[in-house]
């Protein structure tokens, strides 16, 4: 069974970046020839591309979870990890992309448009790339960052010039098949059309597209029937064609009452801001099935009243093709007029590129109250990415992070907002990474000589104070005095003498 889907939630996970490598080159007679750890590869992006050959979002409905490949890790001998290929997802023309909050992100109105839906993570630098003249042998590398992960909402809004609206079984699909080369499903029961059908019509020198919108019923704008699911496909059409069934056998129905119901539903449907309301767009009426004698009589009866309302009315038969040629040219006239009006509209405003100010910090600090004092939250692309790249099991890597934050101006800004030593600092939104801020940790990591992979600035302070030196000195002097006094007591007791002689009276 063919299924049509025009509204899906896509769960995306872009690839993570590969970790950098810590490696030292070893050659004969050169056991430590310098760092040679390679960089990690970037994770794969997920890109949405509009394609004219794609007509439904069914593939995403069946497989809503999409992820791209991760970047390769760095290796020794200056070998960098491979970058993952981007993952391209094709969507139909007319697809609208929104975030989880409903904010519009992209609108695919033409084939070939691209949108970066999920950005892959950055690869971490290896220790070879981190080496400097002052830090010649880094004992750490940067980790790869995580790729973007989240949900996107995809809505398909058919891009057509003319929308055919009407009750179920009014003959809309048959009209599309008669006007164009399209072959929609046609049957003798209501709601045969379960998805919009597009057809291309050539009327003289004008070529336009028509969309068969599934049947509307009373209450469609409130969600009854299939109305809410498919009224969105009418939004982009420049003209409407009301297809009225003149041969219906249902009691209480006639072309005039059907038209009133459809107009009520179209008027109740809210269009996006900036678009023309549906009832203010050009509209034509087609009285269908006049090949049936009773239907022709009814069409002749209601046509004058419809014309009094200001509509152009055409009596047609999709079975015998009667009246289709004048209708096609009338629709072409409306489409051509709409295209001319669209071309005469003022050009869109220019895109203004505003360069970043030279004094822009690139991060913000928010002071949040807590039960144990203020919490200082640091938000910004660079600090948050640097935290993700830091291996907190490596002291040298933590010191490198402290230096990067200090050079960015985080320490000065923390002082400015009132932070003191020992204040709680969080980097990133949500839980983030929590630190007990110590300003002395952020100074001259490149000048520190220490074993690879360690940072003496993170060790406890072992240097003696002046009072401790004075106390140790006094204890030492007291011990020496006590030792001299003990020697004097032993000499006075005869336990030893200054000059010991042997039995000959000579000095030993």
From TrEMBL:
Keyword hit for rRNA processing? no
Task: Tell me where in this chain the OBG-type G domain is found.
Answer: 160-336
Protein name in UniProt: GTPase Obg
What gene is behind this protein?
obgE
Basic and acidic residues bias: start-end ranges: 454-481
Annotated InterPro entries: G_OBG, GTP-bd, GTP-bd_Obg/CgtA, GTP-bd_prot_GTP1/OBG_C_sf, GTP1-OBG_CS, GTP1_OBG_dom, GTP1_OBG_dom_sf, OBG_GTPase
Concerning PANTHER family, the annotation shows: DEVELOPMENTALLY REGULATED GTP-BINDING PROTEIN-RELATED, MITOCHONDRIAL RIBOSOME-ASSOCIATED GTPASE 2
Pfam assignment, any one: MMR_HSR1
Q: Which organism is it from?
A: Herbiconiux moechotypicola
Assigned EC number = 3.6.5.-
**Which Gene3D superfamilies does the protein's record reference?**
GTP-binding protein OBG, C-terminal domain, GTP1/OBG domain, P-loop containing nucleotide triphosphate hydrolases
CDD domains on file: Obg
Region annotated Disordered, chain positions: 447-481
Q: Where does GTP bind?
A: 166-173, 191-195, 212-215, 288-291, 317-319
| Role of this protein | An essential GTPase which binds GTP, GDP and possibly (p)ppGpp with moderate affinity, with high nucleotide exchange rates and a fairly low GTP hydrolysis rate. Plays a role in control of the cell cycle, stress response, ribosome biogenesis and in those bacteria that undergo differentiation, in morphogenesis control.
HAMAP family for the chain: GTPase_Obg
Q: Which family does it belong to?
A: Belongs to the TRAFAC class OBG-HflX-like GTPase superfamily. OBG GTPase family.
Obg domain segment(s) = 2-159
The UniProt keyword set, sorted, is: Cytoplasm, GTP-binding, Hydrolase, Magnesium, Metal-binding, Nucleotide-binding
